[in-house]
Amino acid sequence: MRRLTVISRLLALLVCGWLGVTVPPAEAQKLKSLQVHAGFLSHKPDNLPLQLPVLTLSPNYERDTTSYTASLPYSIPGTSLVAEASVTSKIVGVEGKKADGTTLAFSSWSYKPRFGGAGAVISFDGLGVGETTIRLAVKGIGRSRKIYSVVVNRAATASDSAVLSRIELAPLTKRSRAYKLFPEFETATTQYAVNVRANVSSLKVNAATEHAGSAVDISGQAADGKSLVLDGSQLSGLAVGDNTLEIAVTSEDGTAKSVYTVAIARPVPDDDATLHGLQLSEGPPSPGFFMSAMAGKLPPGNLTPSPAFDPGVASFTAAVEQSSITVRCRAARRAGITLSGRSSAGAKLSAGNRTYMKDVSAGKNEGTFLSVTLSGLSPGENVIEIVVTAENESTKSYRLVAQRAGGQ
Predict the structure, then answer these.
(1) DSSP helix, strand, coil percent of the chain (3-state; round to 5)
(2) One-character DSSP codes across 275-323
(3) Is 142 helix (H, G, I), strand (E, B) or coil?
(4) For residues 112 and 116, what is the distance between their CA atoms, to the nearest angstrom?
(5) What is the per-residue pLDDT for 67?
(6) Within 20-56, where are the H helices?
(7) C-alpha distances out from residue 284 to 296, 378, 403, Å
(8) Are strands 257-266 and 191-195 parallel, antiparallel or unpaired?
(9) Domains and CATH numbers, the chain
(10) Which of 86, 66, 77 is CA-nearest to residue 136?
């Protein structure tokens, strides 16, 4: 018996090794996540997360907890679950039963989670008033199973709640923080303000209602008088100036309504496309660029451009002996900097040791910083072009000629 136990453990470790992970036996049949939504899906969703109201689980989801409850609005007789199993397990059984024992039909679709494992979207329709019990069976290595249950309680009457539980405006780019609301969100507060950057014409809107059965209507007017356009959760059409976003909430029973307003200020784009600083060093860079940039300045170089750097001068020369030069630039905080070069023989200079720090804020000494080492300088005139692009997309070019004497 002891030998069989050892063999079974070795087989489990081998399976985990093939998958590139190590999973403790206690984790083998657990769900990584579980989310319950209000609403039925008639076809496979195009994207996750689902664009359906999220129901609050009680207690909050924990892997070791297997029993939950959730409240469903009276006007929504369907519910959808999104469940992800651990990397060594899968969902092998689904069941939904009303309080009277009637079994509910369901639709399900599988998907591959980003970090491995197995995911499933499961949707039920026709939930009656009262309790419906949904059970998921999760199978791990061997014959081990764990049963998760969610008791969904559909209300007997429609709600008169017409308030929001959250307003979130965020950039379109992933992993970006939401914009800060002024004041901080509270359900009873209906007037807010948000500041966005001058180049932002679109953003994401997430407005969650306190009651899942409440209806939300989002509209607005841009600073130029045109209507803001909402496509899914993406709001576009923001103009320079003050834009007004309105989020109207109507209760499930239609007896109550509230309107939340967000003033979205988009400033005039900065037109500063000048180079604020230029430092040159022969050979590879010396350390200290990052700390200097964080302090809002460029570290000194060992080469002096001719003429001495001035933002109003567009062309410089520098005498070099080596085949590489480190160019360090500073521009306005919202600006961008690009740098390229060709040797006297016409070959493209190789760029390395690149450090780019945009939107550095260090009190009054804020800016965008770039440090690049260009290699492949040949005897003669090697031409380097520095282009600064302002926030309003205007550009200004600077020319640096690295004059290298004959030699290796």
Answers:
(1) 5, 45, 45
(2) EEEEEEEESSPPS-HHHHHHTTSPPP-SB--BS---TT--EEEEEE-SS
(3) coil
(4) 7
(5) 96
(6) none
(7) 22, 16, 17
(8) parallel
(9) 23-154 (2.60.40), 164-266 (2.60.40), 275-404 (2.60.40)
(10) 66
Measured between alpha carbons, how far is 166 from 175 in angstroms, rounded to an integer? 19
What is the distance between the alpha carbons of residues 342 and 223, in angstroms, rounded to a whole number? 45
3-state secondary structure of 240: coil
d(CA 209, CA 222): 24
Residue at 179: amino acid letter: Y
Amino acid letter, 181: L
Minimum mean pLDDT among 268-277, 284-293, 310-319, 345-354: which range?
Answer: 284-293
Q: How far apart are CA 141 and CA 292, in angstroms?
A: 54
What whole-number distance in Å separates Cα of residue 317 and Cα of residue 381? 9
Q: What are phi and psi of 238, to 5 degrees?
A: -65, 130
- Residue that is written with structure tokens 């750097």 in the block: 309
The residue whose two tokens read 């003050």 is: 242
pTM value? 0.71
Distance from C-alpha of 39 to C-alpha of 15, rounded to nearest angstrom? 38
Q: How many other C-beta atoms are found inside a 10 Å radius of the C-beta of residue 386? A: 23
Contact between 198 and 391 under an 8 Å Cβ cutoff? The reply is yes
Going by the DSSP 8-state scheme, the letter that residue 115 receives in this structure is T
One-letter amino acid of 90: K
> Tens of pLDDT along 308-344?
999 999 999 999 999 999 999 999 988 999 999 999 9
Those residues whose C-beta lies under 8 Å from the C-beta of residue 68, and which sit 6 or more positions away, are: 34, 36, 57, 58, 59, 61, 148, 149, 150, 151
